[in-house]
Design the sequence.
């Protein structure tokens, strides 16, 4: 099974109040964790099209076993305790014909991923039926988990497993790589 990533970038950025588009930031913007330099409009998505927040792992596509889901949830809880950065995994049955970037951005807005003022949340979104995956990174972490690093994680860690139909391994290894990147900060 081949997966593709829509768009030029495998990552998108989260804004002050959630997920917004991403433009270039100056180093002082990033240090202040001020996302006012992102001025793209928020996507207009009917909230009934979004999945429910179930915690660190929201597996609505049922691609994770209970054991793997619990392992990832423990790992993300420990990561948040150690770094204060919030990372969530979301799988969806379908994107309701909404671009994955807009869907992820809307989830971040409604769920409030990351700390307000710190802008330090990350969402790993997997839409197996559409064959899409995305890592959304907040502006407060864009110098740690850059677009390049997020793309590399998707291309070299997650997608090789997905191509073999091993979604659990892809998600688990992807989260491990995201966590090690954030912990190295």
Sequence:
């Amino acid at each position: 099974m081949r997966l593709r990533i829509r768009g030029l970038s495998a990552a998108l950025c989260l804004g002050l109040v959630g997920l917004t588009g991403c433009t270039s930031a100056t180093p002082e913007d990033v240090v202040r964790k001020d996302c006012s330099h992102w001025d793209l409009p928020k996507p207009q998505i009917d909230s009934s099209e979004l999945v429910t927040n179930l915690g660190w792992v929201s597996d609505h596509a049922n691609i994770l076993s209970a054991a793997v889901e619990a392992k990832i949830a423990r790992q993300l809880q420990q990561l948040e305790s150690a770094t204060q950065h919030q990372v969530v995994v979301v799988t969806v049955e379908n994107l309701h014909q909404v671009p994955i970037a807009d869907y992820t951005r809307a989830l971040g807005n409604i769920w409030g991923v990351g700390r307000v003022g710190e802008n330090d949340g990350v969402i790993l979104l997997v839409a197996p039926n559409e064959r899409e995956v995305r890592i959304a990174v907040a502006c407060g972490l864009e110098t740690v988990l850059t677009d390049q690093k997020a793309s590399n994680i998707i291309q070299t860690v997650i997608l090789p497993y997905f191509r073999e139909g091993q979604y659990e391994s892809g998600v688990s290894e992807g989260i491990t790589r995201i966590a090690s990147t954030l912990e190295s900060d």
Q: What stands out?
A: Helices lie at 27-32, 66-83, 100-111, 147-163, 167-183. Strands lie at 11-15, 18-19, 57-59, 86-91, 121-127, 132-138. Residues 79 and 180 are 9 Å apart (CA to CA).
